[in-house]
Prior knowledge:
Family: Belongs to the binding-protein-dependent transport system permease family.
Largest sheet: none
Pfam families: BPD_transp_1
Radius of gyration: 21 Å
Number of helices: 8
Strand content: under 5%
InterPro entries: AA_ABC_transptr_permease_3TM (IPR010065), ArtM/GltK/GlnP/TcyL/YhdX-like (IPR043429), MetI-like (IPR000515), MetI-like_sf (IPR035906)
Structural class: mainly alpha
Helix content: over 70%
Protein name: Amino acid ABC transporter permease
Number of strands: 0
Shape: flat
Transmembrane segments: 15-44, 65-86, 187-207
Distance between the termini: 57 Å
Amino acid sequence: MDDRLQLLLDSFWPIVWGGITGTIPLALISFGIGIVMALVVALMRLSKNRVLSGIARAYVSIIRGTPLLVQLFVIFYGLPTIGWVIDPWPSAVIAFSLNVGGYAAEVIRAAILSVPKGQWEAGYTIGMSSTQTLRRIILPQAARVAVPPLSNTFISLVKDTSLASVILVTELFRVAQNIAAFSSEFLLVYMEAGLVYWLICLVLSSGQGRLEKRLDRYVAH
């Protein structure tokens, strides 16, 4: 068997395993934390309190206006200069969570604003407080609108986790880097890593499509 073909076969499972044990957990944890942050920031943006709204607006502007790689470097390489040393994995989670929070906040804010104001009035009419109306009436409807763009955010995050390799986090692309360095077949191994990312995204996109079809019947057009 050709040496290159053998290399592809031998390296395929380690690269996939790097995705299963590194890339996917990193993406899931960061996305989960990021969504919670995004909800808080979105509500701050919608707040009538100018201070809260201003803080949220500044956060979103900074996150959306700076590269993710720079944010990652600031946390992992920058903070130690002022005495805050954070290990690679937590640094990656913090950076990705902050990034997701900044982008997803705008998605959630737009979704909340898409719910007719009459829904708020309906909640007040039956004696609900603002918090109860938001939690029981507004957010469930907003969630159905927000799911498609948030799904795209998650798929993008899965690919963005490859940046964690620059701070030595062991994930899919880091495994590929190690194999490429050992074999000197950089083009071949990196293309294989790209193939694995593509397959993962195909699976996620398929799941996204099914979820959107399931939710579509509940969303007013």
